[in-house]
């Protein structure tokens, strides 16, 4: 009896801690989105920037004067969109095809190097890239097998769209049809209707495996699920987790959150160990053959002494901007062995922590959290410059089939909203990319507001607590390790949109709770 009392108190403490942390992270996140540079139209010295500002003033004025009608219109519009998701999905696919036809090009930074190594333009044997970052080997193999930028971008469209579909079913399983419709609408708005399909990197290619994993984990412990199906769901969850891990290791944080919360909640160790064992068997079904292949392939000679350890990424996380920088990379490369690399990294980490001090470190984390979360375009155009810049004209797709579209007048016009070539002082990366940034930021704010709302209904339900813990886990990971830009949030969009959709589905409950506050009831009684 005493043991049960302590267990109940411990559970209540864990529940409260998760909700409090999730509220703090999401509230600060929302604050960061509002003060983002994507709203700094005054920095865009272009007539188009002025037009956006004037249009925004007119819209806000009309919205204020017609606020009661606007509220009804907003509710009607949302209901219309959520009731016609299938048609909206079709429009999204059409939008993606237009982007592919008229704006296809090779993204810069890691993608540029990986792709040119994969298709044989650069000699992979002479490059240390995959030896330093072996986590990108699976993506390299995909690029090598596909051997076409156009085909890779088509696969990227499939990856994004498949993730949206699977996330709908996951949300419906966890929170019902209403939340599923909201979360799907937000997913399409924040990623589907964007040019991220052109960015053929692990950020988006990992999404279907994250979405599948969440779906399988949400289904296996349903009361009406048959034992054989439970076993299959767990195996499939393990398999998709392994694929996600080898594409982007941090993408399995939500899996860790799931089993960590399960461990904290379980009363019998057997109820945790058996599902965990089945899950790991599923993971081994992918990981073991891949390991055998890696050990016997002759494409890349992997060397443990050249591989960058996790301490390197923690060192990057403590650099001035908390992100990639050449000085830290060169320092780690200069160390000859794996042991020396770790020692050098740890020494620098200690020096930086000592220099910052406790208060300075807290201030540093605050600044880094802003960099990690403020940008609603997920840091579009923030990686690289010059020929290996993010999306620049020298890297247009050289496909003969796409050439008439890409080199058309409309293609040039469309790319002015997407490509990040330097167009002189005053332009935010590209001539009209500020338009994309402005509207993306508004959608992003809507998503983050929904996440904040999901923390206000303290429902001690495993499903919502799992997703909140996953969000907390990723945010803490990005604070400790390499971050500094919101691109790293893309891997968790299935988590964020589920939380946001659930948050908006609780609005009637929150509204009712606000109306029934003790103070309000007393005032209404006095009036009557």
UniProtKB/TrEMBL annotation:
User: What organism is recorded for this protein?
Assistant: Lactococcus muris
Q: What taxonomic ancestry is recorded?
A: Bacteria, Bacillati, Bacillota, Bacilli, Lactobacillales
Is the keyword Glycosyltransferase in the record? yes
Membrane topology note? Multi-pass membrane protein
Checking InterPro entries in the record gives: LipidA_mod_glycosyltrf_83, RgtA/B/C-like
Instruction: State what protein this is by name.
Output: Glycosyltransferase family 39 protein
Q: Which UniProt keywords apply?
A: Cell membrane, Glycosyltransferase, Membrane, Transferase, Transmembrane, Transmembrane helix
Keyword Transmembrane annotated: yes
Q: Which GO terms label this protein's molecular function in UniProt?
A: glycosyltransferase activity
- Show where the Glycosyltransferase RgtA/B/C/D-like domain sits: 147-287
The UniProt record lists the EC number as 2.4.-.-
């Amino acid at each position: 009896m005493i043991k049960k009392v302590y267990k109940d108190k411990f559970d209540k403490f864990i529940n409260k801690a998760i909700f409090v942390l999730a509220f703090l992270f999401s509230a600060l996140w929302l604050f960061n989105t509002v003060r983002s540079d994507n709203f700094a139209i005054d920095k865009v010295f272009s007539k188009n920037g002025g037009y956006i500002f004037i249009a925004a003033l007119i819209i806000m004025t009309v919205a204020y004067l017609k606020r009661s009608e606007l509220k009804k219109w907003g509710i009607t519009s949302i209901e219309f969109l959520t009731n016609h998701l299938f048609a909206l999905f079709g429009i999204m696919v059409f939008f993606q095809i237009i982007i592919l036809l008229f704006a296809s090009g090779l993204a810069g930074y890691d993608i540029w190097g990986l792709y040119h190594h994969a298709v044989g333009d650069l000699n992979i044997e002479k490059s240390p890239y995959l030896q330093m970052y072996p986590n990108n080997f699976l993506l390299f193999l995909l690029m090598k097998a596909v051997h076409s930028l156009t085909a890779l971008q088509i696969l990227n469209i499939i990856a994004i769209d498949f993730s949206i579909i699977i996330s709908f079913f996951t949300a419906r399983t966890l929170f019902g049809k209403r939340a599923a419709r909201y979360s799907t609408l937000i997913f399409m708005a924040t990623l589907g209707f964007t040019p991220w399909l052109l960015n053929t990197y692990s950020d988006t290619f990992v999404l279907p495996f994250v979405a599948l994993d969440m779906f399988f984990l949400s289904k296996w412990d349903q009361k009406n699920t048959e034992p054989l199906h439970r076993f299959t769901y767990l195996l499939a969850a393990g398999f998709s987790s392994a694929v996600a891990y080898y594409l982007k290791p941090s993408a399995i944080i939500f899996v860790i959150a799931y089993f960590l919360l399960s461990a904290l909640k379980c009363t019998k160790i057997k109820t945790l160990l058996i599902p965990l064992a089945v899950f790991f068997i599923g993971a081994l079904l992918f990981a073991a053959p891949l390991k055998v292949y890696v050990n016997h392939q002759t494409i890349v000679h992997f060397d443990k002494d050249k591989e960058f350890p996790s301490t390197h990424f923690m060192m990057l996380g403590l650099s001035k901007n908390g992100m990639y920088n050449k000085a830290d990379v060169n320092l780690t490369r200069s160390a000859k062995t794996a042991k020396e690399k770790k020692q050098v990294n740890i020494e620098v980490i200690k020096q930086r922590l000592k220099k910052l001090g406790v208060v300075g470190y807290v201030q540093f984390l605050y600044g880094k959290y802003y960099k990690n979360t403020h940008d609603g375009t997920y840091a579009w155009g923030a990686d690289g410059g010059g020929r290996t810049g993010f999306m620049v004209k020298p890297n247009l797709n050289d496909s003969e089939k796409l050439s008439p579209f890409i080199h058309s007048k409309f293609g040039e016009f469309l790319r002015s909203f997407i490509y990040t070539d330097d167009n002189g002082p005053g332009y935010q990366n590209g001539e009209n990319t500020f338009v994309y940034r402005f509207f993306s930021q508004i959608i992003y704010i809507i998503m983050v507001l929904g996440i904040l709302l999901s923390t206000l209904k303290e429902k001690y339900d495993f499903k919502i607590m799992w997703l909140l813990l996953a969000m907390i886990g990723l945010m803490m990971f990005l604070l400790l390790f390499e971050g500094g830009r919101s691109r790293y949030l893309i891997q968790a969009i299935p988590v964020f949109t589920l939380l946001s959709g659930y948050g908006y589905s609780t609005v009637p409950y929150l509204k009712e709770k606000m109306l029934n506050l003790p103070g309000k009831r007393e005032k209404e009684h006095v009036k009557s």
